[in-house]
Structure formats: structure tokens, C-alpha cells
């Protein structure tokens, strides 16, 4: 009887060891298996979630298959059980272990938001409203609301122009104001740097003046080699006391009433931004200028140009007098006519 008992105990031990080995092997296989997703997946783990909640969420979103080995894996590798709340990006090539390592690292997904040179604050606010995972704190899209939220003072209270266009990365639940503040600080630093290195004797009374000219340059041309020439036209006109007569300022001053075309009445209607009707610079910037336009405003080319008009080929024709300018306008209209007839 004793011998039989020993045999039974041995068999039981072997069975237990076999079961343990099988469980260990299955758990390892599970840990090294790929996630059951076909494309990149954004996953949010709420604050306070434990193992049961995490496993249930992963299964319900079809990120992993139902398995008895999930809890076993967390016991075998307890460092994987230290997952943190947040929003993460999973990819199809990830294994279950790599996914859990990501959750334990707390390295949340970053989302890009691109603010393009030459766009206005209203466009930025619209982008923020539509951006995924942004925490919306601004009560409305009024510029005064933005200025108050960021505590802007002095010449920056106008808001427009004082935010640096670039691609910004953010994590889920980043406040809209935090992104705007980052862009504002970058523009402040950029303007300060450019202002310190600008040419002498430019007709600017303040950094806001330089930023205003840079914003007009940004709206007038996208051709990099033209920016300093465009800048020279506006600087020459300011020095001579000529009105700037630049369409983008009129359009900005028209606000929502601009529907894609301007009439003679629009050009003649005074606003704080209509440079056909007022002398000097408009009230402030009309868009967010990029680095190249800021540099052009600070380092205009030395020319005698007073006019420029589109050449119909993507660039502009620059002239020094009205007669030459009118001829350039005629050439442009003829070029457009020929294109339309093709």
C-alpha cells in the first residue's frame, strides 16, 4: 500500500509539474503573440482601472482574444501589471508583452496638430475645436477670450500674428490653451530674436509693426525668393508715405463679409485694415507669419520697387513706377486670358 501511495504521489507531482509547465508555456506563447488588430488602434485606459477592467476592455475592443492566460502573465511578470492610465497607440506588429510594457511605461500617444503659415487665429481655433482628444477650455472663439485666457497684454492683446505656425504634438486631454500658449511663447522668442538682428533704420516703431509687415508678406507670396522683394516694396512705400494698397489687408478687415471677391466699394470702405483707404500700417498683423516672412520683414532687399503684380506663372512682376506697373498688369491679364482659352 505504501508503494502504491508513493507511485500515486509521484504521478500527481508529475501531473502538477506538467500542468505548470504547460501553463508556463501557454502563458509565454500568449505574451509573445501579436495583438488581434489589423491597423493602428488608439486605446484609453481610465484612471483607477485594475487588471479585470483592463482585460475586459482589451477583449471588448478586440485587441486581444479571450484567454485564461492574461492574469497568469501578470503574476509571472509583475512588472507588466504596473500599467498606468492614459491614451496609448497600439500597432498590429505589437505583441501582448510589448503592449503591456507600453502601458507600464506611461508613454502616451502623441497627436500632431499642424498650424500653417498664413492662417488666422479663427482658423486655428476651428482646428482646435475639431482636433481629437483636445480638452476644450475656451468658452468661445473670440480673440478677446483667447487674449484673456493667455493673459496677453499691450500690443499682443490683438492676438493675431503672435502665434508661431508649426506642427505641435500633444497627448490626450491637453488643454487647448496649453497648445496656444506654447505657440505664443515660440513666436515671442522668434520675434525677439529677429528684432535684435534686423536691419537699421527700418520704419518700424515696435515689434508689432515688424510682425504686421511679416504677416502681409506671408499672405502676398509663397515664393521664398520673392519675400525680401515684397518686403522692399512695403518698406519703400512706408518711407515715402505711400499707402500700402495690399489686398490681403482689405480682405482681413472685411471679416465674414468677404465671400471670395472684392469690389471697388470694398477698396474704398475705410476699416482699420484697409490699406487702400488708410495711410501707414494696418491696426496689426493679419495672419500668422512663418520664419521666412519674419526674416524678410527684418531684412528687406534694397530696391526701388514700389509695385508688384502676379505674373500668372506663380510669381510676381516688380516695378518702380506706375506706368511700368500698369503694363505688367496688362501682361498678367493677357496671360490669364490665354490660359482660360486653352
Structure, described:
- It is an enzyme of class 4 (lyase).
- The record marks 220 as: Important for catalytic activity.
- Belongs to the transglycosylase MltG family.
- This protein is mainly alpha-helical and 342 residues long.
- The chain has three domains: 33-108, Dna Ligase, domain 1, CATH 3.30.1490.480; 111-189, no CATH class; 201-341, no CATH class.
- The protein has 13 helices and eight strands.
- The chain has helices spanning 2-32, 51-60, 69-76, 96-105, 121-130, 143-150, 176-197, 207-220, 227-240, 247-254, 264-268, 291-298, 322-341, and strands at residues 41-45, 86-90, 111-114, 134-135, 167-170, 174-175, 307-310, 316-319.
- The strands form four sheets. Strands 1-2 form a two-stranded antiparallel ribbon.
- A hairpin with a 5-residue loop joins strand 7 (307-310) and strand 8 (316-319).
- It is elongated and about 120 Å long.
Task: Based on Cα principal axes, name the global outline.
Answer: elongated
Q: State the helix count.
A: 13
Q: How many DSSP-defined strands?
A: 8
Distance between the termini: 107 Å
Question: What's the main sheet like?
Answer: 2 strands, antiparallel
Poorly predicted tracts of residues: none
Protein name: Endolytic murein transglycosylase
Keywords: Cell cycle, Cell division, Cell inner membrane, Cell membrane, Cell wall biogenesis/degradation, Lyase, Membrane, Transmembrane, Transmembrane helix
GO molecular function, one term: lytic endotransglycosylase activity
Family: Belongs to the transglycosylase MltG family.
